[in-house]
Automatic annotation (TrEMBL):
UniProt keyword list: Hydrolase
Pfam families: Amidohydro_3
Protein name: Amidohydrolase family protein
Native source organism of the sequence: Bifidobacterium avesanii
Domain of life: Bacteria
Segments forming domain Amidohydrolase: 150-370
Keyword Hydrolase: yes
Keyword field contains Secreted: no
One GO MF term attached to the UniProt entry: hydrolase activity, acting on carbon-nitrogen (but not peptide) bonds, in cyclic amidines
Length: 406
């Protein structure tokens, strides 16, 4: 039997003859949803995975599935972050609760099919009758799909939102407190009022941080100062961190040391930042991608996010972290293996999830992608995939191509 023959719902005992993330031969065994030492295998023949890579499951640590798939309906803005925000705030009040759930569920299923088994999504506060509509939709989906994907939800506050509404979101089942203090008229005050709520409930935080090319916007320093004494069990993530990309190197190093000492993790969102940043620079346009390699050199854990899926903030995005891996390589100058691990193992670490690295004793979560090498898979997009969670096939995608013979 070959892995090609596996079907959704099958429980597998392992595989043989695959390659790993570094293109090395890999065979493994699975028992009770856990990877076991290969030499202990004594069961029936395992599926042959020759021609396939077995890779850690992907983790998207910065998404907005409550906004997903609204690009055309919302007005297709052509411009900056401010343009996208204005477009969204005009459109959001027209959405019904049902529309939010339907679109978010479509997005979630795209992630699962692509091999993403861990996802952190921000939830906007609704601008219609119920400000918790988006959060409630994501909590519903979190529970519905709990056997297929680990979904963390961040309450994404906006300037002027009463903190009591953030409190209600936490009570409704949201996991983390979030916001975008750099967009506030009073960034530090906005940051502190949100972190007050996190501390009140004993939950972590994930902030949109300094999503601007303005080198003077450095709320990451205020964030670090506030959370440096938090318990290590509490998440403290900073997403985007665009302004780090325009700092002098010596100043950047000083900032990163402060962030490292505070235990902050950083999430890069290359696709959306490439789209939204630099519209005021018609030549020598800045990339707007946080300096991934320099951050990692300081010992800070970096994860990645697709951020937006076909909404006013990004016309593209398909829930596939291989897109982000490719962009980290070509626009962020990250080694391909490192880029894949940022989009998988490091993401799980940032989410405080157990490791899933195809090692003995770990949960048997992985994605099989047809291809001989990791670089070849990244280049082709790896359309043929089999997603395994706890030893069970939860998704399978196949592709075919026909060309006229000459």
């Amino acid at each position: 039997m070959r892995v090609d023959d596996l079907q959704v719902g099958d429980t597998i005992s392992g595989f043989a003859n695959a390659t790993d993330v570094r293109d090395r031969p890999l065979s493994l065994s699975i028992a009770n949803g856990v990877v076991t030492a290969d030499e202990t295998y004594a069961g029936s023949p395992r599926p042959d995975a020759s021609g396939w890579a077995a890779l850690p499951p992907m983790a998207d640590v910065h998404a907005h599935i409550d906004k997903a798939l609204t690009w055309n309906e919302a007005g297709r803005p052509q411009g900056s972050l401010e343009d996208a925000c204005a477009c969204w705030f005009r459109f959001a009040p027209t959405l019904t609760d049902e529309q939010i759930v339907v679109r978010a569920e479509r997005a979630l299923r795209k992630y699962i099919a692509a091999g993403v088994t861990a996802l952190r999504s921000h939830a906007n506060f609704g601008l219609g009758k119920d400000p918790l509509a988006n959060a409630k939709a994501l909590v519903y989906l979190k529970n519905k799909y709990k056997d297929l994907i680990d979904l963390q939800i961040v309450a994404l506050s906006h300037d002027g939102l009463p903190v009591e509404t953030v409190r209600e979101a936490i009570k409704a089942g949201v996991d983390l407190v979030g916001g975008a203090p750099h967009l506030s008229e009073h960034p530090v005050e906005d940051l502190n009022r949100l972190l007050d709520v996190a501390e009140e409930f004993g939950v972590g935080a994930d902030m949109h941080t300094d999503e601007t090319l303005d080198p003077g916007m450095l709320t990451i320093l205020d964030y670090a100062k506030r959370v440096r004494d938090w318990d290590p069990s509490l998440i403290r993530s900073a997403g985007h961190c665009v302004s780090l990309s325009v700092q002098p190197l010596d100043k950047l190093d000083d900032i990163l040391e402060v962030a490292r000492e505070a235990g902050i993790t950083i999430i890069t969102n290359p696709q959306t930042n490439l789209f939204l940043q630099g519209w005021d620079h018609p030549v020598a346009t800045p990339r707007g991608i946080t300096p991934i390699n320099r951050i990692r050199k300081h010992g800070i854990t970096v994860a990645a996010g697709g951020d937006n899926m076909q909404d006013p903030f990004n016309p593209f995005g398909r829930g596939d972290m291989l897109e982000m891996v490719s962009l980290m390589v070509v626009a962020g100058h990250v080694d391909p293996v490192d880029a894949y691990l940022i989009a998988s193992e490091e993401g799980r670490k940032v989410m405080h999830l157990p490791p899933a690295s195809l090692q003995t004793g770990q949960t048997a979560d992985f994605v099989l992608i047809k291809g001989q090498t990791l670089s070849g898979i990244i280049a082709s997009g790896g359309p043929d995939r089999i997603v395994v969670r706890r030893g069970k096939v939860i998704a399978k995608t196949t592709s075919t191509a026909q060309i006229l013979d000459l």
